[in-house]
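Task 17 of the worksheet. Students: predict the tertiary structure of the chain below and write it out as structure tokens. Keep your answer in the requested format; marks are given for formatting as well as content.
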Amino acid sequence: MTRHALLGLFLVFLFVTPIVAGTLAGVTLPDTLDVNGQQMVLNGLALRKKVIFKVYVAGLYLPAKENNGEKILAADGPRCTVMHFVRSVDAGKINEAWFDGLKANTPDHSPELKKQFDTLASLMEDLKNGEKLVFTYRPGVGTEVKIKGKIKGTLGDKVFADALFSCWIGKKPGPGEKFKKGLLGL
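Model answer:
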């Protein structure tokens, strides 16, 4: 190779932005997401296991990395969780997890918050390997629920978002402490 060819190749590599992603249990999620024009970074990845079965890989996206769940929940900033299923799970089991998470992390919840979780449960569908649930909270708008690539609705306000995200990064995360630490990048 000539010097000019090597220099050209070097310049190409110098100015090409690599596409980087996080991978866990064979699932790859992008390092960034665009949420209504705002770049969100992959904060962490976690694998949800039930007994010996892998259920889903989750990725938590935030405007900037943060490893403190309480700070994430206290801030009224955008956040997104992507759940990529690696096995089939019926809607009833998914809903059971929502209500367990609500009870464990928001024990004195209001009737209004319970109604919002009831609405969330009514939106759920059976999910198969490779399908996704995506929850995107935007301040002043609510939490968008996307199932299998289709927007099913937008729920609640920050109180709902905090209760939902507490299911994963709250004081008593349903999938466990190891899962929480994965999402927090610890």
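Marker's comment: The radius of gyration is 19 Å. Residues 4-19 have pLDDT under 50 and may be disordered.
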